[in-house]
Amino acid sequence: MSLVIGIPKALHYYTFIPLWERFFYELGLKVVESGATTKEIVDMGVRTAVTDACAPIKIFQGHAEWLAQRTDVVFIPRMVSFEGGYVFCPKFLGLPDMVRATIDKMPPIIDTVFDLRKRPAALLRSLVRLGRSLGAGQAKAFASAIRAIKHFKQAGWTGYLRRDSKPRPQARSSAQVTIGVVGYPYIVHDPFLSCGMVDLLESAGARVLTVEDVSAKQIRSEDKSLDKQLFWHYSNRTLKAAYYLMRHNLVDGLVHASAFSCGPDAIVGKILELDSKYEFDVPFLSVTVDEHSGRAGIMTRLEAFLDMLIRKKYAGAKQQLPELAPDGLVESRQGQRRIAGASQTALDGHDEFESSSDAMREQGRQVS
Amino acid sequence: MRITFPYMGYYSPVFSNLFRKLGHDVVPPPKPSKRTLDLGTKYAPEFACLPLKILLGTYIETLEMGADAIVSSGGVGPCRAGYYTRLQEKILRSLGYDFTMYTVEPPKGHMMQLLKTLRAFVRVPVTKLFDAIVTTCLKLWYIDEIERLCHKIRPLEVKKGTSTRLMEQAVAEIDKAESYGDVRDVGRAFIKKFNEVEVEDRDPLKVGIIGEIYVVLEPSANFEVIENLNKMGVYAHRSIFLTDWVKENAFLDALRIQPEKEIRSQAKPYLNHAVGGHGENTIGETVRYAKSGYDGVIQLVPFTCIPEIVARSILPRVSRDLGIPVMSLILDEQTGLAGVLTRLEAFVDLLARRRMQSGELPA
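The joint structure predicted for all components is written out below.
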């Protein structure tokens, strides 16, 4: 078999790629991925997608079109439900149809349905059927499916994340600010769409935790905090992971990365905004990205948020600071006190404060 | 308990009456106004759809008027509407309002919850309850029947404004009727009156109205699209009526009968899976309108509505394949009446021209 299968690197790719990749590999098929999101891909997607679709959908269409010119078939599974009886966003449910209707000259689309609501064995069945439709015998399809599922389990199941970026420091030091960046993997971990949010924060000295850093068990432990579960797979993961991070005091601040006009995020974002304030008292920042987002704008907002967190953290820990660090931090403490005292009068101490927060950030970097 | 509920077109007085009969005080929701939408927009998430904003605004207005219980519908997804009440409750509480939220979940899968909600409500004997429900259903049915007639007759009426006036009278009279028999008599009388309205003899342009249920049903959310089309002499067929919807989604679904199969099979070549809300219906109805000789279709989409965005991506292909013009009207708090009217006029012009080219003279 010399069929070349294209897999768009967008949306469910970020979670399910070990499963697909291994399965096609076991079947002996050649797989082509569409590669990282680029301006060119985004432009293609914007041209074909409807104007009020969210950016991830537009980007997906771009990836699909990029593959259309290079592969024999494009793999766009119809992800209906994977675990917990939660469904995916309606846009995922209609994805193959949307791509088929909007992109001309699309090669055949493989739109296997994955609906595990009724029985978990449906995953195996769907894969076997997919394998057979690609020309493999029953036995081979079955064996490949089993191996792929095993591989996916080892890789982390739905908590899987392909770490293209450098491994992140996991140990927590009390001097460092930890920020939870929550959002769907296809937004947070697409460096183009999220403007490299995670890297930006890390290079500024913060430690970042994402939804994928919270284990499935920990996410499940938050089931009871919602009296009616959300309907959507990724939304449930995001909201519950955020709850977990806040409830167990694992983060100093929370950033919600969301896409412009994202339907489920309208609900997730508002719940997070209200609960982070009234229930957990954790500083919260909502960042909305779309295909026009500029890195500079995102960077400014993240830096401001980080500065605020640093200020808050050290204001609360005045006693411990001198032991922690020598000159820089003592100086910054003075700067801070001045600001706190002069808050009603004027911004006299502003400049000093700027430099002192820089010093603090420097400090944070050293500690890390 | 002073109950309030979402405003929905001509149905609102009927619901007020039902709750009164069940032994409660009612704060009837006011017709959504600029202020309603402003309030909703201010406190709702930015990317929430228009219905959520209108409902939230309505709740704030009625809570200010003294309501202390809200009744609204739930759902099982994947459309966001099923989660409205939870989110709205959270938002309203953060604003400091004190109230009870009753969510009426669909019977399928939530039977116990539904019964529990109903038990909290009903403060009258079962016989009276039964009577109230049957009468209400009949009222809704007659209102739907008469509105259907109104849409048909209004574009053709000789004396402009007759049907609108009749429609308003009908709703007021039906609302006043107490017993089952009264409702039936009033309903029949008005159907007769409608049939006696003097009409022009011509074949009007026919447009199908599809889209998200709330903006299709509530005229103030869609800039009275149907009335405006009627005024231009165009017959507009609304694809959704509340009684049909409740029948299909609440009762038959619980009995595992799937009446929408036909619509699904129509949509299948283009959209092969349910996407929540009315996404699949939007495609299926468009195919049906094209096959039954309609001149065009107008899709009403609240901005960011997920199922309708899926449908909207696919509609151009349906339109091309079947040769039926489709216009999508995206509605949100920024939409203005003048813009909508201009687009409607242009669309109607286009339809008239198409008909002219095909040989028939339009009216």
